[in-house]
């Protein structure tokens, strides 16, 4: 089901109404931002939340308008954990976080170990760690003296984008294996090259394309033979949204009936995770899943909002907005995500 732009507008009004009606005025509050310090194996965690402290626009590349370390106030009592994409930072989801905070949610963004903007040394191993890090993020919020009194953690939402979308699908009940990655890339290497190889290189139609594919097949065949089916469940997680998810390596039967309500937001011009191999396969397998938005002109980077500055090379090509894409539509998409969590997590 593709959501029209008119439908997005209705979603925006619905999310605003839910926020005003159910969050005790939190929709009019500032968006606070703070950081919970690293602990043990877990890195620092950024938290966005309703605050009654004044906000101001900060310095730096993102210049977010937030109440830095502002005083938290009670919103709707629910938490949404955002699981970021590979190599990403907490700030590229600030616009989605703002829509959630306006609806009364507290939003926690754990920095996934060895797969973030500071350290991208083990993105493969991170696939296994990420769901556990989300569970520990919930634990950490319940242990924080500032937020624990404001939250009920029996029903938590999860939003994940790209590799975070893979984490989100796992937490919705999906099961995957490294061997599925090998089989998918063996069959679809040229067509889904950026998913299989990342952004270190790309196919150009030149004489080196054959060599690139031979090297990729050799490495993938050597590293990804493990048939172990992997998953992770946390009974506190009660609703999930996956944005342009990395989904090709899932056993789609495991997503046919998700254990919790599952929604997707997708992009037709995604060149990094082609919809026909990833998000479309989930929607075809899952009859109960909602498609909150399908951006006809949007690319993979549409769900990074704001976009990170200073990108270059293949990464910039994969994340840049395609010609004709109107980024203004993202306000309504973010609101649709917030409205989904309001419907699924609030009484």
Distance N to C terminus: 26 Å
Helical stretch tally: 10
The tally of strands reads 10
Rg over CA atoms? 19 Å
CATH superfamily membership of the largest domain: Alpha/Beta hydrolase fold, catalytic domain
- For the record, the CATH architecture of the largest domain stands as 3-Layer(aba) Sandwich
Portion of residues in beta strands equals 15-25%
Q: List the secondary-structure elements in sequence, H or E.
A: HEEEEEHEHEHHHHEEHEHH
CATH fold assignment of the largest domain:
Rossmann fold
User: Percentage of helical residues?
Assistant: 25-40%
Mean pLDDT: 92
Shape: globular
The figure for the number of domains is 2
Sheet having the most strands: 10 strands, mixed
Helices and strands: which structural class?
alpha/beta
Low-confidence stretches: 1-27
CATH class of the largest domain: Alpha Beta
Give an overview of the whole structure:
By secondary structure, this protein is of the alpha/beta class. The protein has 2 domains: 5-176 and 229-345, Rossmann fold, CATH 3.40.50; 178-228, no CATH class. The chain has helices spanning 5-22, 94-102, 123-143, 163-171, 178-188, 193-197, 209-223, 279-285, 313-319, 330-345, and strands spanning 30-36, 45-51, 56-57, 65-68, 79-83, 106-110, 156-161, 237-243, 262-267, 290-295. It has a 10-stranded mixed β-sheet with strand order 3-4-1-2-6-5-7-8-9-10, with helices on both faces. Helix 2 links the parallel strand 5 and strand 6 (106-110). The chain is globular. The chain starts with a helix and ends with a helix.
């Amino acid at each position: 089901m593709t959501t029209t732009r008119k439908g997005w507008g209705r979603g925006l009004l619905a999310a605003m109404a839910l926020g005003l009606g159910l969050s005790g005025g939190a929709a009019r509050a500032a968006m606070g931002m703070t950081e919970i310090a690293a602990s043990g194996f877990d890195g620092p965690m950024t938290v966005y939340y309703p605050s009654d402290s004044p906000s101001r626009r900060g310095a730096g590349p993102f210049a977010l308008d937030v109440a830095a370390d502002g005083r938290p106030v009670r919103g709707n009592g629910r938490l949404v954990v955002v699981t970021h994409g590979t190599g990403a930072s907490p700030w590229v989801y600030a616009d989605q976080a703002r829509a959630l905070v306006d609806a009364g949610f507290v939003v926690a963004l754990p920095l996934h170990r060895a797969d973030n903007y500071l350290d991208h040394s083990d993105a493969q191993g991170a696939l296994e760690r990420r769901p556990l890090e989300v569970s520990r993020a919930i634990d950490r919020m319940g242990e924080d003296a500032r937020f624990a009194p404001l939250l009920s953690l029996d029903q938590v939402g999860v939003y994940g984008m790209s590799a975070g979308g893979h984490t989100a699908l796992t937490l919705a009940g999906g099961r995957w294996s490294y061997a599925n990655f090998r089989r998918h890339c063996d069959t679809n290497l040229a067509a889904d090259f950026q998913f299989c190889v990342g952004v270190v290189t790309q196919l150009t139609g030149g004489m080196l394309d054959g060599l690139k594919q031979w090297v990729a097949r050799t490495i993938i065949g050597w590293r990804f033979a493990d048939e172990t089916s992997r998953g992770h469940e946390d009974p506190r997680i009660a609703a999930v949204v996956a944005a342009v998810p990395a989904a090709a390596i899932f056993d789609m039967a495991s997503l046919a009936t998700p254990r919790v309500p599952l929604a997707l937001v997708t992009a037709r011009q995604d060149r990094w995770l082609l919809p026909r191999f990833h998000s479309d396969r989930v929607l075809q397998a899952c009859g109960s899943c909602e498609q909150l938005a399908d951006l006809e002109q949007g690319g993979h980077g549409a769900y990074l909002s704001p976009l990170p500055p200073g990108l270059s090379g293949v990464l910039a090509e994969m994340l840049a907005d395609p010609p004709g894409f109107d980024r203004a539509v993202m306000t309504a998409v973010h609101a649709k995500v917030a409205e989904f969590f309001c419907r699924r997590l609030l009484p």
